[in-house]
Write a structure and sequence with these properties.
This protein has 218 residues and is mainly alpha-helical. It has ten helices and two strands, in the order βαααβααααααα. A two-stranded parallel sheet has the order 1-2.
Length: 218
């Protein structure tokens, strides 16, 4: 799948997010760098066919996706982003190959779902602190703390698949996009729905604050 812009999601979907980010202070490390998994109270609900198809295909995929680019400039922009994010993530993921595959997949799945990659990285930081095998006290799993019922809704019900990197990131991004669409693009409400705290500010504020750590100036 090729993307026209390797770093920023479509502007029409990011205006409300950027306004929220600009108005927030950087949150303290005690809130953002928790060793406990955060989320997971997503609510089981009917899914439209496109969402079900996107989630089902993730279970079948095993290898990290390979980004494609329309031109050399786009590829170089992506490589600059990858280098900058890799430096910031080094303490969490010391091994280069693992770090590269993780960032490559986050970038790909964010773009695929029409999400800002900085938002997704901020959400992962708050949800799991970049721990692949994180489990919350309500059973949510992996980087993006996906609830096990999602695998039953669209697959064979094996929650262990949510520890597979691409599956978890695909599920998390598609679910977040689904919730944002349900909330007509309202980022505050969509993030709250993802966390199971719709209408309350702590979780959206935490994610938007964490997102500041992953802004890429280019």
């Amino acid at each position: 799948m090729a993307f026209a812009d390797p770093v920023n999601a479509p502007a029409s979907r990011l205006i409300s997010r950027r306004k929220c980010l600009q108005s927030l202070p950087v949150l303290g490390s005690s809130l953002l760098i928790s060793e406990r998994a955060s989320a997971g109270a997503q609510v089981e609900e009917p899914l439209i066919d496109s969402v079900r198809t996107a989630l089902s295909s993730a279970i079948a995929n095993q290898a990290p996706p390979i980004p494609e680019f329309k031109d050399t400039e786009s590829r170089l922009a992506y490589l600059r982003w990858l280098g900058a994010m890799s430096d910031r993530l080094k303490k969490k993921k010391p091994e280069w190959q693992i770090r590269k595959e993780f960032l490559q997949t986050v970038w790909y799945e964010s773009r695929r779902a029409g999400l800002d990659v900085t938002l997704v990285l901020g959400l992962i930081q708050v949800e799991s602190n970049f721990r692949k095998f994180a489990v919350s006290n309500v059973g949510a799993r992996g980087y993006m703390q996906v609830m096990p019922f999602w695998t039953r809704v669209i697959g064979d019900g094996d929650p262990g698949k949510l520890f597979h990197m691409q599956t978890n990131l695909r599920f998390g991004c598609v679910i977040l996009r689904h919730y944002l669409d349900r909330e007509r693009g309202d980022l505050f409400m969509g993030l709250g729905r993802y966390n199971g705290s719709r209408g309350k500010s702590p979780y959206p504020d935490a994610v938007l604050g964490a997102s500041k750590n992953w802004v890429f100036a280019g």
